[in-house]
Amino acid sequence: MAERITPRSEDFSQWYSDVITQAKLADYSPVRGCMVLRPQGYALWEVVQRELDKRFKETGHKNAYFPMFIPESFINKEKDHVEGFAPQLAVVTHGGGKKLEEPLVVRPTSETIINAMYSKWISSYRDLPVLINQWANVVRWEMRTKPFLRTMEFLWQEGHTCHETEDEAKKETFRMLDIYKQFLMNIFAIPVVPGEKTPSEKFAGAEQTFCLELMMQDKKALQGCTSHYFGTKFAKAFDIKFQDRNGQLQHVYQTSWGLTTRVIGALIMTHSDDQGLVIPPKAAPTQVMIVPITQKNKDNSQVLEACRNIQSTMKSVGISAEVDDREGQSAGYKFNEWEVAGIPLRVEVGPRDLANQICVFAPRVGEKQQVSLSEIQSKTPEALEALQKLLYDRAAKFLEANTHIENSYSKFQERIETESGFYQMHWCGSDKCEAQVKEETKATIRCIPFTQIKESGKCIYCQSESNGRVIFARSY
Which three-class secondary structure string do you get for 43-110? Predict the structure, then answer.
């Protein structure tokens, strides 16, 4: 299986596609630009759902569901919004064999349909805050697609909240960004760079967009998630007003925030290797695969029983473990299959191991070790925690090593061709300079980092005054 995976050094893009196929995460749909999530791929999305949904509900958010068909007139209500999404819209013009009186847009995002409902539901400050999240699919008519990273239909969650005050809404915007940050760092073991998008890169219709930028193994940037402060723009477009505590009518202040199946692509490209998928233990649907090493034409009942006892012990301490007791497949075949699938920890048990009351721990990344059967309960969590830390630390070192400071535009033009990465460079704030750098180098401003290097300098492009550095990078 692993021999069917193109090495990263040879063709990173093909390697990525091979890992997805060989690890059985997804397959290509008969519909152009769409993908089929296979059980092992969908299981990863279920981990995302479970972990984030728990965090959302702990902060008072509730789930709801809104229609995927949106009247075209709704999309046109907010000028920036319609201009931003118009090229990507899928529009239904006929239904039931008849032409529709008004075309319906297939949901590219749900601000308009949700705000139409909020205008009905909100009338007083007592109705606020409204804290709603939706797990759904969306459709955006992409021309160039790649599994998980950019598909015409994808899964996501989108939060939409309404508040009495600007301060409360802005706090919500940052609170949700921090929830994403904790999830990506602690569960997916991916280091992040938090920051604000430039005006040209912000969400269509938002006052401000904040993001977490991630670095993949090819040193390109990937946007991990976004959290938007809308102010009152959508509230004014959809007439969402409430009577405040002084009896005056006011527009609500709003936020929106989201994360998509793209995050699975981020996991693949952050941790995986030429042998296949690598999944951090806390993100793994199955954390441990126990493989019995059986003997042909002999009684293997004791080995199988020992494997099931190990599974039971692991489950007792909250670890998801399975026993691969399939007949007709060699232990070596199983080892290779689960390595390609990215199982964090493989446990091997054979007759000789059983006689010595030991088993072998084989982490997906790292060295094998012998473990006493009596220590399974304590050693398994230790091994998984060590692997989780190893993967995060490795990715964090990679991010640090490939983040550069550059002051010369000509040198940047040369370096970006041979050495991708995050380049911290001065920018004057001009949309024109930003656009010219993008056109000439294919690098965009990924964000104005919260930990921005604030210092006087000269814009990398026009040499005008600058007060701080932003991050330029090529991206997905």
Answer: HHHHHHHHHHHHHHHHCCCEECCCCCEEEHHHHCCCHHHHHHHHHHCEEEEEECCEEEEEEEEECCCC
